[in-house]
Write a structure and sequence with these properties.
Structural class: alpha+beta
Low-confidence stretches: none
Mean pLDDT: 94
Number of domains: 2
Number of strands: 13
Shape: elongated
Radius of gyration: 20 Å
Order of helices and strands: EEHEEHHEHHEEEEEEEEH
Strand order of the largest sheet: 5-13-6-7-10-9-12
Helix content: 25-40%
């Protein structure tokens, strides 16, 4: 156990650093800074980190870790755990630098197949849902479950809805969904179980670019509503 965090084994090749239990911006600042510190000072056998809302998964090569002369401990897990504690992580007061991306979203029924359900479930008008969804500036808390998918939070409590009971086998790229306290954008066609309330014409993931993912951990997103004509115009200009 370290100061302000705990660790536990995820597998024989990974351990998890847990920095909190909730979706909270102050906890997430710790995640970003701690993740940066590990990547800036990697240990022998280090493979990668996977940061999330309040945890960091640290992946490593157990054979390389056990044979390292710089790491100490009776097992690979204990050696990596000791290394994590030796970093003496302290949260810096200065926030991590990030960018804010303005994302146009069309809430037309053609692009928002679940907007009516959300309206009925929350007993709010469609206009009110759009207003609540576009009001905050969201934080990118995590990138997953497919490359480039941003988990954004937190939603206004009045927009909290469950995931779909039966996920869709295919969701169109750019679809904007909500589930629980989160909202997100599907970067390309994939299965998905979130409630779809709109679509953006911008591309979030391009494997041909040097930086394939448009958004990074800690970035900010602000949704701006656009009509169908403007949506198609933006889409055409980017094709």
């Amino acid at each position: 156990m370290g100061s302000g965090f705990t660790t536990y084994s995820l597998s024989e090749r990974a351990l998890v650093i847990k920095l909190g239990d909730t979706i909270d911006i102050s906890i997430h600042q710790k995640v970003i800074q701690f993740n940066n510190k590990i990547n800036q000072s990697p240990f022998e056998g280090f493979v990668e980190t996977v940061p999330a809302y309040n945890t960091i998964a640290v992946y490593y090569d157990p054979i390389a870790v056990v044979h390292s002369k710089k790491l100490e401990g009776p097992s690979a897990h204990k050696r990596v755990e000791k290394y994590i504690n030796s970093l003496n992580f302290v949260l810096e007061e200065k926030p991590v630098s990030s960018k804010t991306l303005v994302v146009p979203v069309c809430y037309d029924p053609e692009y928002a197949p679940d907007l009516k359900f959300v309206s009925e479930y929350r007993k709010l008008s469609v206009d009110k849902i759009i207003q609540l969804h576009t009001a905050p500036v969201y934080t990118v808390y995590m990138i997953g479950f497919v490359p480039g998918f941003p988990y954004l939070g937190k939603l206004d409590p009045d927009l909290i809805v469950p995931r779909k009971e039966t996920p869709r086998t295919m969701v169109d790229p750019g679809s904007v969904g909500i589930a629980g306290e989160q909202t997100g954008i599907y970067p390309f066609a994939s299965p998905g179980g979130w409630q779809l309330i709109g679509r953006t014409p911008i591309t979030l993931f391009d494997p041909l670019k040097n930086e394939p993912t448009l958004l990074r951990l800690g970035d900010r997103v602000r949704f701006v509503p656009v009509g169908k004509a403007e949506f198609l115009q933006i889409q055409e200009s980017r094709s």
